[in-house]
């Protein structure tokens, strides 16, 4: 699940190894923009060995166990591993690539998705998939019924997470960009050795887009000294308990924790392209835009964009 954002450069390289070099070269620009309109994933390269039995990363076929409708455009899909006693070999910030080949298509549709399941529980993985208008991958995944199969490649590793590397971990998520953030929150809080404090700033368009809120509430209640979640909704319903508005400079200045110039503080960002450009900044051939975080005093090494 994800907002609109470019296909990670390193992931493009990994896909090329799979055998679609020609496709990536010929459609580099359009493929990047298309891919993350459906599922933004953390930047990554092939990493953790062992997806399922045999301990090997590669292609795997998973069977859909259940499909849960979360809201009008989002589903939670649980896929079985071939061995129910096997762990998927996932690690924090890891992701998978999904494959399907539409009828009469020359090349498969390949998209990255972030699993949201508890990595300590064997036998399955779960994906949170938002369906986009004309989304080829998201539409296909939403069409799957229990018993259907999905071809994937993984796990793919992303940011090299180290337990307790940072005292203050700030997470900024927009819309479907919540998936890598939730994976990180869950993994950190389920690790008894991890002592980092976490603040999540989660912005969405409407109240119904606050997916994973129930799960976040449970973690926030269980770890009140370690996790704080701030919600903001652009177009809230009447009587909504959430702050109205987008993720702004003023909101970030108020809510981000930890010394901004210290190596003990880290900011992770994931969301739609426009949001990421506003917060992180952007550079083009003819112009560049300074991001809100830079204006607030955060240097590039203090920020990671999934």
UniProtKB/TrEMBL annotation:
Gene Ontology biological-process entries: ergosterol biosynthetic process
Compartments reported by the entry: Mitochondrion outer membrane
Keyword NAD: yes
Cofactor requirements of the protein: FAD
EC number assigned by the record: 1.6.2.2
Highest taxon, organism lineage: Eukaryota
Keywords attached to this entry: FAD, Flavoprotein, Membrane, NAD, Oxidoreductase
MF (Gene Ontology): cytochrome-b5 reductase activity, acting on NADH
GO CC aspect terms: mitochondrial outer membrane
Protein name (record): NADH-cytochrome b5 reductase
Organism: Penicillium cf. griseofulvum
């Amino acid at each position: 699940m994800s907002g609109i954002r470019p296909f990670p450069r390193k992931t493009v390289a990994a896909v090329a190894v799979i055998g679609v070099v020609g496709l990536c070269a010929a459609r580099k620009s359009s493929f990047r923009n298309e891919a993350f309109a459906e599922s933004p994933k953390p930047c990554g390269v092939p990493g953790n060995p062992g997806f399922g039995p045999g301990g090997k990363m590669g292609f795997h076929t998973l069977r859909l166990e259940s499909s849960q409708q979360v809201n009008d455009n989002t589903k939670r899909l649980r896929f079985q591993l071939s061995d129910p006693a096997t762990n998927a070999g996932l690690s924090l910030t890891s992701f998978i690539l999904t494959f399907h080949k539409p009828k009469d298509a020359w090349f498969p549709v390949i998209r990255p998705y972030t699993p949201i399941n508890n990595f300590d529980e064997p036998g399955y993985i779960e994906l949170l998939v938002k369906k986009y208008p004309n989304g080829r991958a998201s539409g296909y995944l939403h069409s799957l019924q229990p018993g259907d199969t999905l071809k994937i490649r993984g796990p793919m590793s992303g940011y090299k997470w180290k337990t307790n590397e940072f005292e203050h971990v700030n997470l900024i998520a927009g819309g479907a960009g919540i998936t890598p953030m939730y994976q990180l929150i869950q993994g950190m809080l389920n690790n008894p050795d991890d002592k980092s404090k976490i603040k999540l700033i989660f912005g969405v368009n409407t109240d119904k887009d606050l997916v994973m809120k129930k799960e976040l509430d449970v973690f926030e209640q269980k770890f009140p000294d370690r996790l704080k979640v701030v919600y903001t909704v652009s177009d809230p319903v009447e009587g909504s308990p959430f702050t109205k508005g987008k993720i702004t400079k003023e909101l970030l200045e108020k809510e981000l924790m930890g010394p901004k110039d210290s190596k003990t503080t880290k900011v992770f960002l994931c969301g739609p392209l426009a949001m990421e450009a506003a917060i992180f900044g952007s550079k083009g051939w003819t112009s560049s835009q300074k991001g809100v975080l830079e204006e607030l005093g955060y240097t590039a090494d203090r920020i990671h964009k999934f």
